[in-house]
């Protein structure tokens, strides 16, 4: 048995076991690491896709992507009246609007009546609201749910994406990104 | 009794009101008229991930965003785009994660290369072993 011509060192016999244990360790780490289920938009750092959404409310302009490139940074909030976390973030959006941040809304798969009710109950921070009834613009933005908020700089480039509701502790980051976008 | 029935009916109706999410996406639940195009769209939809219910394809999922994605796929197929163009459009926005069909990228090429390398190593080892035996006899 031992007269094989290839003389492998004695420790080499442990090599397959070590490889296997390394593999098991990798699997265990992967299994127990808390997974990030958010699908971030791949458009961050790129320019906003072109779109022109009709008005979601009478008397309020719809959202044309051209206004996002008017030289000033904007927040674009993807929301809906049927979305519960959108109610949670409403006070924060209100605070941002009060601080002078232009907030543009994209209302996804919604109706005028529901939207009006939602804004009456939760406050209305939006300058414009575009109706994305078939969800096409949401897909074009790389948004995988509501609410999502995009910071867009004056040239119409997406510089930051916030996924999920804006809680009070997120305001700092958003204001910072808006400030950076305005420089 | 009538009142009771009305009450029960109201109680049953409540969840319907709670889930008002209305989409006008035309092809979310409608097939394309051309069966060949519909087959193409269906094959593509089965390999695209629903972004909300992440274990399902958009063909399997009843989530509203999956409906929007199905409609997008069907409308673009109808307009003459190829399935791979549509997949590329979605990957451009959501990353590789949106596609169930694995893409060959800078990150994933070892997955494709390792089986070949292992086969090659196995072949070399076996050949050495067998030729060594042959020489020993």
From TrEMBL, chain B:
Per the UniProt entry, the signal peptide is 1-18
What one GO molecular function would you report for this record?
metal ion binding
Keyword Cytoplasm carried by entry:
no
In this protein, which residues make up the domain named CcmH/CycL/Ccl2/NrfF N-terminal? 22-130
Keywords noted in UniProt: Cytochrome c-type biogenesis, Heme, Iron, Membrane, Metal-binding, Signal, Transmembrane, Transmembrane helix
Q: Which biological process, per GO, is one annotated for this protein?
A: cytochrome complex assembly
Q: Which GO terms describe its cellular component?
A: plasma membrane
Specify the superkingdom: Bacteria
Which is an annotated Pfam family here?
Answer: CcmH
Annotated TM spans: 107-126
Q: Which PANTHER family match?
A: CYTOCHROME C-TYPE BIOGENESIS PROTEIN CCMH
This molecule's function is given as: Possible subunit of a heme lyase.
Family designation? Belongs to the CcmH/CycL/Ccl2/NrfF family.
The protein's name is Cytochrome c-type biogenesis protein
Its lineage reads: Bacteria, Pseudomonadati, Pseudomonadota, Alphaproteobacteria, Sphingomonadales
């Amino acid at each position: 048995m031992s007269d094989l011509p290839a003389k492998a060192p004695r420790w080499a016999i442990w090599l397959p076991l070590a490889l296997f244990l390394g593999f098991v360790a990798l699997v265990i780490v992967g299994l127990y690491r808390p997974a990030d289920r958010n699908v971030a938009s791949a458009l961050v750092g790129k320019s906003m896709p072109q779109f022109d959404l009709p008005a979601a409310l009478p008397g309020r302009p719809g959202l044309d992507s051209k206004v996002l490139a008017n030289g000033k940074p904007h927040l674009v909030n993807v929301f809906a009246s049927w979305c519960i976390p959108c109610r949670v973030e409403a006070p924060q959006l209100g605070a941002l609007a009060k601080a002078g941040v232009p907030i543009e809304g994209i209302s996804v798969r919604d109706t005028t009546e529901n939207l009006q009710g939602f804004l009456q109950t939760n406050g209305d921070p939006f300058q414009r609201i575009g109706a994305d009834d078939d969800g096409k613009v949401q897909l074009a933005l790389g948004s995988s749910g509501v609410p999502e908020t995009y910071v867009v700089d004056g040239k119409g480039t997406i510089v930051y994406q916030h996924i999920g509701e804006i809680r009070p502790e997120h305001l700092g980051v958003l204001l910072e990104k808006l400030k950076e976008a305005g420089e | 009794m009538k009142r009771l029935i009305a009450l029960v009916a109201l109680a049953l109706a409540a969840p319907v009101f709670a889930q008002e999410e209305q989409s006008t996406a035309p092809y979310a639940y409608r097939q394309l008229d051309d069966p060949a195009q519909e087959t193409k769209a269906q094959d593509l939809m089965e390999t695209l991930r629903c972004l909300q219910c992440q274990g399902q394809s958009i063909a399997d999922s009843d989530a509203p965003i999956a409906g929007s994605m199905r409609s997008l796929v069907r409308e673009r197929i109808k307009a003459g785009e190829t399935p791979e163009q549509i997949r590329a459009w979605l990957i451009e926005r959501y990353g590789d994660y949106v596609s169930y069909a694995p893409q060959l990228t800078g990150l994933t090429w070892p997955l494709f290369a390792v089986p070949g390398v292992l086969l090659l190593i196995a072949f070399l080892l076996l050949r050495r072993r067998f030729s060594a035996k042959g020489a020993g006899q």
